[in-house]
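Re: beginner question about structure tokens

> Can someone show what the tokenized structure looks like for a real chain? I only ever see the sequence side.

Sure, here's an example I had lying around. Input first:
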Amino acid sequence: MRFTKMHGIGNDYVYIDCVRNAPPADPEALSRSISNRHFGVGSDGLILICPSEKADARMRMFNADGSESEMCGNGLRCVAKYVHDHGIARKPKLAIETGRGVLTVALEVKNDKVVRVTVNMGEPILVGAMIPTTLPGDPPLSAPLTVARKSFEVSCVSMGNPHAIIYVEPDEAAEVFGASSDWDPVRELGPKIEHHEVFPRRTNVHFVKAHSPTEVTMRTWERGTGITLACGTGACAVCVAGVLTGRTGRKLLAHLPGGDLELHWSQADNRVYKTGPAVEVFSGEWPG
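And the corresponding structure tokens:
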């Protein structure tokens, strides 16, 4: 089976062209094996690029644990790059079918290859029951949550998949963002928050430091994968939560461990736009 390894600011996935080739019989099991960083290719998960009856291509995304997710913003940029660069559809704008509907992308092309992609990520989902979470509010903003005897204020947004955002106070930033190595709350508390009963479909977890109304730094515990270098839908959710909690504006530069993303929650159409790079790393053959 032919595969291609790609990443969007370090959020790496294995991609399989199912437009020209038969899809894997068991993508859940394949994702678990191929994603293994010691015994497989190594990735945050598996993404299938499939035919679509209503778009240029359809994207199916599986986490490293084999669970299927609705969306992956960094993965979507790479799907768009693959669709263009490998000749499935060579257009300046593409439509990609995802678990949250058809999303449109605009391509920045240099030397006939896509280097950056702007994705119309759609409107944020702000109704608590649809995120989904049982925390109070539509959406829950700065809602109290206690995990492992630690109390947080959590804001929740869905971008087609659920996100829990925790803003970090200055005295906590050293632990979260690496100046102190004694204890890592993202690694220790991320999985506990992901599986907390108030999130019936689990959740992605983001720890965020707001530097100014236009700039944040964030780290992510990704549902079904663990710590990742980037989360595109999470950065969009952070942009929305920042506006709703009064911490940041509608245009935001997000620093993630793997690189930067530009976000814009447009007041004109209520949609979130995300811009960032997409990189093809290598291709190979997977047995079976």
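Each token stands for a local structural state, so reading them left to right follows the chain. The longest strand covers residues 101-110.
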